[in-house]
Design a protein that fits this description.
single chain; 430 residues; alpha/beta; 9-stranded parallel β-sheet; two-stranded antiparallel ribbon; disordered N terminus
Length: 430
C-alpha cells in the first residue's frame, strides 16, 4: 500500500495563511506536523505501510543499503549512539592503547634488585617497570619504608609488583622479618592442608606489612626425591610430594594462605619440573614427556587454576612432545595448553631468562623476552648481576623494536600489560 506523498500531506493539513510573525510560527509548527505525519501516514486514517510496501513518498521497508529516509532516521541515530557508546567504553585495554610502546614494554619487565638496596631500581621504576624482584637472604628491618619510597616513583602511582622467593626451607629471602617455614617436602608430609594455609597466612601478613605483595610460590612440581635441590635436580625438598594428589591439595592450601595474608601467589613451574633431567639454571633441561606430565604434573596446576590462581610461572625446561624451545618461549606450552586448553586467564610470568638453558637455546635475554611475549607470557624476569639498568633498557628496546618491525603485535603487548595491571587490581578508568 502506498503512503501519501509529502505534497498530499501538506495540502491536507495546510493552515490558513497568516501575516508576519504569526505566519512564520505557524510554518514552524506545520513542518513539525508534516514530519510526524510522514512517519505515520499523515495519521489521517491511512493504513501504515506493510514491511514490503513502497511508494513515491517514503518507504518503511527495511533496506540492505544505507537509507536517509525520515522513517529510518530515528532507529539509525539510536544504533549509532549505541555503537558510539560501545566504542568509547573505557577499559584498561582502551587506555593502554594510548600508551607508547616503550611504556608498555617497561610494564612487562620485573627488575632484579638487592633487598638491602631497593633504591637501586628507582630509575627503572620511574620509567614504568612493572615489578621488582628482591634478591638476598636477610632483609633490612626498614624494608617496608624503603619499598614505600620506591613505589612513590611509579608513574601515575599505579602500584608495583614487589616479588620474592619465599617458599620455605632453604629458599627464603626474608625469614628474619616474616618468620620461617620448613621445606615444602616437610609440609606435605607432616601438615594438613589447613595447617599449611594457616602457617603460610602468618608469614604472608608480615610480607604484606613489609610492602612485599607477590611471592614466587608455591612450587607444585610433583617430585618427591628426598634430596636438597641441586644442579642436577631443581626440586627435591622444594616439592610437597611425589604424589600428585598431595601436591594438588598442598599447593592450593599454600596459595590460599598467601592470598589470605594479602600476597599474590605465583604457582610454579608450569608444566612441572618433577623428574627433570637437569636444573635449567645451569644448562639445557628436559621435563618428563608431555604425555606423562598430563597425568602426573598437570593436575596440581589444574587444581590451582580452578581455585583461582592469579599468576603462573612457566619453566625454562624443554617439554618433549611440546616442541624444541624451553616452555617459557613456547607458544604451544603457553598459548595452546595453558591459556587455551586449561583456560588460564591470569598473569603468566617467565622463570629467569638469565638461565643457561635459555642461552643454550640460542637466545640472549632481550631476544628471549620478545619470544616469551610472542608465546603468550606477560612478564619477564632476569637475574641480579651485571648492569641491571643496561639490561632492562636492552629488553625494553628489543620489545619496542619487535613491535615496530612487525615481529611482535602491539595487541599482544597491550594484552600482556593488561594482565600485569589486572593482577594488581589496577583500574585505569577509575
Amino acid at each position: 500500500m502506498n503512503l501519501p506523498s509529502y505534497r498530499d500531506c501538506r495540502r491536507a493539513t495546510a493552515p490558513p495563511r497568516l501575516p508576519g510573525r504569526a505566519r512564520n510560527a505557524r510554518r514552524l509548527s506545520a513542518v513539525a506536523a508534516v514530519a510526524a505525519m510522514l512517519l505515520v501516514g499523515c495519521d489521517t486514517g491511512t493504513p501504515k505501510a506493510s514491511p514490503h510496501s513502497s511508494g513515491p513518498g517514503v518507504s518503511l521497508a527495511p533496506s540492505s543499503t544505507p537509507s536517509h529516509s525520515r522513517s529510518t532516521l530515528a532507529p539509525a541515530l539510536s544504533a549509532s549512539s549505541s555503537s558510539s557508546s560501545a566504542a568509547t567504553a573505557c577499559t584498561n585495554s582502551t587506555k593502554l592503547a594510548g600508551w607508547s610502546n616503550r611504556r608498555l614494554a617497561m610494564l612487562t619487565i620485573a627488575v632484579p634488585v638487592s633487598e638491602t638496596s631497593v633504591s637501586d631500581a628507582t630509575s627503572e621504576v620511574s620509567a614504568g617497570a612493572g615489578g621488582v624482584l628482591l634478591f638476598g637472604s636477610k632483609a633490612p628491618s626498614d624494608l617496608g619504608s624503603r619499598l614505600t619510597t620506591l613505589k612513590s616513583h611509579v608513574p601515575g602511582h599505579l602500584g608495583l609488583l614487589v616479588m620474592t622467593d619465599e617458599e620455605g626451607g632453604g629458599i627464603q629471602r626474608m625469614s628474619n622479618l616474616v618468620g620461617s617455614l620448613p621445606w615444602p617436602a616437610y609440609m606435605g608430609a607432616h601438615w594438613t592442608p589447613a595447617q599449611i594455609q594457616q602457617n603460610v597466612t602468618k608469614v604472608a601478613k608480615k610480607m604484606a606489612a613489609a610492602q612485599v605483595n607477590m611471592d614466587l610460590a608455591p612450587v607444585v612440581d610433583v617430585d618427591g626425591r628426598n634430596v636438597a635441590p641441586s644442579k642436577t635436580n631443581p626440586d627435591g625438598w622444594r616439592s610437597f610430594s611425589g604424589n600428585t594428589t598431595v601436591v594438588s591439595k598442598a599447593g592450593v592450601a599454600y596459595m590460599n594462605g598467601l592470598r589470605a595474608g594479602g600476597v599474590i601467589p605465583v604457582v610454579k613451574h608450569f608444566p612441572g619440573l618433577g623428574g627433570s633431567t637437569y636444573n635449567s639454571d645451569f644448562g639445557p633441561a628436559r621435563t618428563l614427556p608431555w604425555s606423562t606430565l598430563q597425568k602426573v604434573g598437570i593436575p596440581p596446576f589444574t587444581a590451582a587454576i580452578k581455585a583461582g590462581a592469579p599468576a603462573i610461572m612457566v619453566s625454562n625446561n624443554i617439554v618433549p612432545g611440546l616442541g624444541t624451545n624451553p616452555a617459557s618461549l613456547s607458544p604451544t606450552a603457553i598459548s595452546s595448553e595453558l591459556r587455551g586448553k586449561m583456560g588460564f586467564k591470569g598473569l603468566v610470568v617467565t622463570d629467569s631468562l638469565s638461565a643457561k638453558a635459555i642461552s643454550a637455546a640460542g637466545f640472549s635475554v632481550p631476544a628471549a623476552a620478545v619470544q616469551a611475549l610472542r608465546s603468550g607470557a606477560d612478564m619477564v624476569m632476569f637475574d641480579l648481576g651485571g648492569n641491571v639498568s643496561s639490561q632492562t633498557s636492552s629488553i625494553a628496546t628489543a620489545i619496542t623494536n619487535a613491535v615496530s618491525g612487525g615481529h611482535l603485535s602491539r595487541s599482544r603487548l597491550i594484552d600482556a600489560a593488561g594482565h600485569v595491571l589486572a593482577v594488581r587490581h589496577v583500574n585505569l578508568c577509575s
